[in-house]
Design goal:
The chain is an alpha+beta fold. Helices cover 31% and strands 29% of the residues. It contains 8 helices and 21 strands.
Length: 375
């Protein structure tokens, strides 16, 4: 292993648990301006003094501004480190970081405040190596978990040589893995327009929006085929209809989460939802469109160089979950994800980071960044 990587990674691992504790201590569900501003303040304190910090408009209206930090160097290449500080956990369910054996348990610990801590630490490491790069930038957004608006930052970083995202890491067999392939993601919203009626004295005068939405949910679920050619998962997740137990519901809405190798498979599910059921009209819409990421070929030379720097393999892997890295992958061929620490149970109360993974994942991150900066 390159000596500087070993030394910097050891320092990162020593500091990371306390830094993660500080960031997880802030409850920051998507859309909570105060929580996201607190996260931005914590991140600004952890960034190196050499970094130029800027706040830029978020892709989603009504959110706090996103954070951009830049290091200017004397080299020739530009890379972007990418992450998000928002979580799916509401304030009432928020858990600050606590140690449970080998696990650091807390809300958003692995998705993805642990990755944010490593990305910031990498910025500190490269602040002392300005000859390695023309620019190393960090983009931290606060709307990744629930965004339905178009992603606003691709043009801002036009011309970068690599995008490196710090979502959770993983093992590929016995070797350290990074993510070079992700599914496309889509969210279908179905709005039902029926007619209310008294459910006891005049039930047949109504047009039941709830039954129509149930039929739409079945149509979506029938397309679920994770072992099929498009590796499509189609999961109804939220349904809302009716306000009283004795009234035929006249309106309602359904949300479904879909993942596939490409957006065409998701759009086909949208087309399969009926226009009406039992006289209630259905309006389906694909409100979120996230592209897939297919960077296997273009990232192979970078992973080879990272393997040489690290002295052990860095292996490519695929993951089904969506990521902001996918938005850059179409225009930035060298896009690598999964550079964060290992952990598990994302979006659950027991979400955790494995403390023992912090040092090896810091080594992987430094090696991949260095390899991406190589001429």
């Amino acid at each position: 292993m390159e000596a500087w990587i070993e030394q910097c990674a050891a320092d990162i691992a020593r500091r990371a648990p306390r830094e993660l504790e500080a960031l997880v201590a802030v409850s920051s569900p998507s859309g909570d301006v105060h929580g996201d501003e607190e996260c931005a303040s914590v991140c600004a304190v952890l960034l190196p003094d050499e970094a130029e910090i800027e706040r830029v408009p978020c892709s989603s209206p009504g959110h706090a501004q996103d954070l951009v930090a830049r290091l200017q160097g004397t080299g020739s290449r530009r890379v972007l480190l990418l992450g998000h500080v928002d979580t799916v956990v509401a304030h009432a369910q928020h858990r600050p970081l606590a140690r449970d054996g080998e696990q650091l348990v807390g809300s958003g610990a692995v998705d993805m405040k642990g990755g944010v801590v490593l990305a910031i630490a990498a910025m500190r490491a490269f602040a002392g190596r300005p000859a390695d790069y023309a620019e190393v930038s960090l983009l931290l957004v606060c709307d990744e978990e629930w965004r339905t608006a178009p992603f606003a930052h691709v043009e801002r970083f036009a011309g970068i040589d690599a995008c490196l995202c710090f979502e959770a890491g993983e093992l590929a067999g016995a070797a350290e893995g990074v993510v070079v392939r992700r599914k496309a993601a889509g969210t279908i919203q179905v709005t039902a327009h029926g007619r209310t009626a008294h459910s006891g004295s005049a039930p047949d005068r109504g047009r039941n929006a709830l039954l129509a939405l149930a039929a739409a949910a079945q149509a979506v679920a029938a397309a679920h085929d994770p072992a099929g050619p498009a590796r499509l998962t189609a999961v109804p997740t939220v349904i809302r209809s009716g306000d009283a137990f004795n009234v035929v519901p006249g309106t309602g809405e359904l949300f479904c989460d879909l993942r596939a190798d490409d957006l065409k498979a998701i759009e086909a599910v949208l087309a399969a939802i009926p226009d009406a059921v039992g006289g209630a009209r259905l309006e389906p819409e694909l409100i979120r469109r996230w592209p897939g990421m297919h960077s296997e070929a273009t990232t192979a030379p970078v992973l080879e160089r990272a393997t040489a720097l690290l002295g052990r393999p860095v292996m490519p892997a695929a993951r089904g979950g969506a990521s902001d890295a996918s938005h850059f992958a179409d225009t930035v061929p060298v896009t690598v994800d999964g550079l964060g620490p290992r952990g598990g149970k994302a979006h659950n109360p027991e979400e955790f980071v494995l403390e023992a993974s912090l040092r090896p994942r810091a080594e992987v991150a430094l090696a991949v960044i260095s390899a991406a900066l190589a001429p």
